[in-house]
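Intended use. Records like the one below are meant for learning the mapping from a protein sequence to its folded structure. Do not use them to infer anything beyond what is encoded.
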Amino acid sequence: MNIREINEMKLLGTPYFDNSRWVSPMNFMSEASYKNFPSKIKIHDVTLRDGEQTCGLVWREDERVRIALALDELGVSSIEVGMPIVSEENMRAIQLLSSMNLKADIVAFARALKKDLDASVESGASRVIVEHAVNPYLNEYVYRVSKEELINRVVESILYVKDLGIRATFMGWDTTRSSVDYVLDVFSEVAAKANPESVVFVDSFGVATPFAINFIFRKLREKIPQEVELEFHVHNEFGLAMGSVLAAVAGGARVIHSSVNGLGERTGNVATEQVAAAFQLLLNVDTGVNLNKIWRVSKLVQDIAKLSPGYNAPVVGERLFWVESGIVVDAMRKLNKVGLEPAMSPYMPILVGREGPVVKLGAFSGSASVELFLESQNISATPDEIEKITERIRKEGRIRKTVLDESEVLRIVKSILG
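Structure written out for the chain above:
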């Protein structure tokens, strides 16, 4: 790498720069809580269960299996396939996946009801998540149970599953609209009496700030035995999901629930691709995910669900690595020449299985963009001709209100160069 370093900031050999990414050195300062992050976390993918709660979305049995196989290849730690009690299709999908000796845990989801638990055991899943609301108002007016009755119901459910030889996790949902004392009482009692493999704290409506999430995870870690792992499940109502995930891990969470393309109820879950990319590229924290395969898995889920993330969505947005601005292209070319490849983006698209950066020509293009295009076509032009081509492209881009495709740019070039 041919870089002439500047004295004020070292790049080569640092944890924040290499030939494929350039992120903030501030991430690695002890004052910025870097030392609170582990070397590895796990991703528990919920695309097939909570993702299916996206309004209007239904996975067929073959689709459920196909996506699970892709998630296993991607490298997630565990896959929440669905609720076997809901349908025979769900049951068959979990049974098939459980028989395939995949690397990822195959996980069933159940309410704290015997019929749900029996179905989960029958499914052959290696682990069962037992869920219940942890909100005194929901438990009073919906489930008609006191705090003590809630704890007993969950403890009995977990012990029942464990006695049948299946690993168990307790998932308490709607925890962030509860009081801290209520949450800590429920989780610590369940952990002490049932010793589940893990407990899941859920911000079901995305209503807690990252500061609150960090606080509660530090409290949970103090109250719950170290052998019981802490997991976090969050929705994205205020766009804070990824920030809350970082805060949770800094506070003691070691498993993050996420879904491909951020599918899920209402605003959706935190996106699997964002969790993997953020931890691995911003903090050098291993998630087990092969970033190179993210785009292919995202496209698979998009094709099956017939739902696409925003065109500029982090990691998987269709136009994420398009560049139109002449100023940006000019800076990118100059920095590339001195060895700074990740110049005008935090990482190179190839890291997540994408092509690019892709320079597009339109209303905001400059001469540097046109020069780059002409070079790619082995076309020579004088500075005056380049200026004329640039102005014509800008004018056409303003009229069309879009970037121009290659054939249209070539038409403009030929009209000026003859």
